[in-house]
């Protein structure tokens, strides 16, 4: 932008001045142009932000973005992924299957994590879809394929979250896991606690025997990981367990288990994502993880269940420092308390 200024040629000794009457005009034009340019810049920034955000998420209004895509170029870019993709051929999404009603739940380590329905023939199954974000580089894509292969290996137990299909030969890459209803065990426990005032049937059904049945299934899943795969879960908690009708429970949240198996270590970022309440003492002292670290967290999971998800942060501090225990919510659960205390003393004395 330029402003036209004229010199008074009547006298060479006179100072430079603007044309008569241009002062008020300049006062109007300059702020207007500044405001317009600012508006244009802000609009471009907002448009760029919206574009990037929309490209990072799956289109929830249509399943076409999940079911269709360009084939992954195996000879260039991701070429060294061919052996892994060949191993995943039996798990590739069949052409007659589609993903519908896809809704974004949250952003995960590799990209969007979504909820949806897997349509196959006349049946529909609730699923969780873990996708690889757009624009991922070769190492990220390779790690995601390894993550899918990890689920192929470990999801052969009835108490481990079940893998259904995957898509690794074309973009977008994703992993399809079977969902559970009501789903997250911690949220289920919270719902029972909220229903306590109304003395609902659900609360009456979740008895001491129910706690035992749930704990038995979680222990079976963890034992399978420890015994058959030499894998440490690393984040055993109610939030990482899936519960369905009939109190059927599956161990999920295997991201940290995959990373620890892949690199034999847990990076600081992932370790920071595990709340201190569930960490075994050796983890807080930055010692190597063992299967007993999972057993410690399993003991806290038991306490989560008998208190319906209400766990005191200072419970274990007083347990060791002052030998005092957090009070239990009611007399009904006190009979479960002695076995848990004995269990924790047994583990810590090993």
From TrEMBL:
Keywords, sorted A to Z: ATP-binding, Membrane, Nucleotide-binding, Transmembrane, Transmembrane helix
Taxonomy, superkingdom: Eukaryota
GO cellular component: endomembrane system; plasma membrane; receptor complex
Coiled coil ranges: none
Protein name, entry field: Si:ch73-206d17.1
One of the GO biological process terms: cell surface receptor protein tyrosine kinase signaling pathway
Keyword Transmembrane helix attributed: yes
């Amino acid at each position: 932008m330029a402003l036209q200024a004229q010199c008074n040629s009547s006298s060479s000794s006179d100072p430079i001045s603007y044309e008569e009457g241009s002062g008020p005009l300049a006062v109007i034009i300059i702020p207007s142009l500044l405001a317009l340019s600012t508006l244009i810049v802000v609009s471009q920034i907002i448009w760029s932000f919206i574009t990037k955000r929309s490209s990072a998420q799956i289109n929830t209004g249509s399943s076409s973005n999940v079911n269709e895509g360009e084939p992954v170029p195996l000879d260039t870019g991701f070429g060294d992924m061919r052996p892994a993709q060949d191993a995943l051929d039996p798990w590739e999404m069949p052409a007659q299957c589609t993903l519908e009603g896809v809704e974004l739940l949250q952003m995960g380590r590799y990209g969007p994590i979504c909820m949806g329905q897997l349509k196959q023939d006349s049946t529909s199954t609730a699923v969780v879809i873990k996708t690889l974000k757009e624009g991922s580089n070769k190492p990220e894509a390779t790690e995601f394929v390894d993550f899918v292969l990890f689920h192929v290996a470990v999801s052969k137990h009835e108490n481990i979250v079940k893998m259904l299909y995957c898509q690794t030969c074309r973009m977008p890459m994703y992993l399809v896991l079977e969902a559970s209803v009501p789903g997250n065990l911690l949220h289920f426990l919270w719902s029972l606690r909220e229903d306590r005032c109304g003395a609902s049937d659900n609360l009456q059904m979740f008895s001491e025997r129910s706690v035992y049945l749930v704990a038995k299934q979680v222990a079976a899943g963890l034992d399978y990981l420890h015994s058959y795969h030499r894998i440490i879960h690393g984040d055993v908690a109610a939030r990482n367990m899936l519960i369905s009708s009939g109190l059927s429970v599956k161990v999920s949240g295997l991201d940290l288990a995959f990373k620890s198996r892949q690199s034999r270590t847990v990076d600081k970022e992932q370790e920071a994502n595990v709340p201190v309440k569930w960490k075994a003492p050796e983890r807080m002292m930055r010692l190597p993880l063992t299967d007993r670290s999972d057993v410690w967290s399993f003991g806290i999971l038991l306490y989560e269940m008998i208190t319906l998800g209400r766990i005191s942060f200072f419970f274990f501090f007083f347990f060791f420092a002052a030998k005092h225990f957090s009070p239990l919510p009611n007399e009904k659960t006190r009979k479960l308390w002695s076995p848990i205390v004995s269990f924790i003393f047994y583990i810590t004395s090993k």
